[in-house]
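Following up on my earlier thread - several people asked me to post the actual chain instead of describing it. Fair enough. Here it is, all 225 residues.
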Amino acid sequence: MSMAGLTQYSAANLVGEAGVDPGTWNRSPPEEEIAETTAAIGKRGIRVVQVPDRRGALEALTGLIPRGAEVMHGSSTTLIEIGYEELLRSETMGWVDLHGRITAENDDRKRAEIRRRSVAADYFVSGANAIARTGEIVACDQSGSRVGAWPFAAGRLIIVAGVNKIVPTLGDAVRRVREYAFPLENARAKRAYGTPSMIGKCVILENEKAEGRITLILVGEALGY
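Reply from S.P.:
Thanks for posting it. Predicted structure:
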């Protein structure tokens, strides 16, 4: 199984264009901070699976989704970097790929309807923009096609994030979105689509009451924005 690794849209290739400060917002925290963060997340009803690297992340992810399951994912540089999208295109896992159905649909109305229904997939896979050491997980997107699944719609939500997303407080998590993740995503959108992005919808996972619904795969390296 090949690994996608860095791409032209990885943070390292957009930092200068985006004008962001990776020293502040893309640091690798010490082990004690990671341990504090995982404990805080666990207390909020979210399962944490720690893995050392992107290969471990992909293995953990595939182990959580059974064959035949309905799967959807949000746009995520992290998922590209761990090789998830490449694996999905290989069609070797036996999943029902809703994202593939969306991109294959040529009728605009039908495509929009599939996209709306896709946030309620059995398994929704996503990246995140920031994680507070106090346990909150934050994500924003333009249309809501990713974060719409987070609060309730998806049967099970699997989030993959590098430890570089960890910041001290919820306030810092929101700042990270605005001062780091969004400028990088905006630069990516301009390169990829020729149009700028915007912050449209934001979700904060603070507590989850449905046992086992949300799993965070926390990767011990820098990934995504």
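The two ends are 24 Å apart (CA to CA). That should answer part of your original question.
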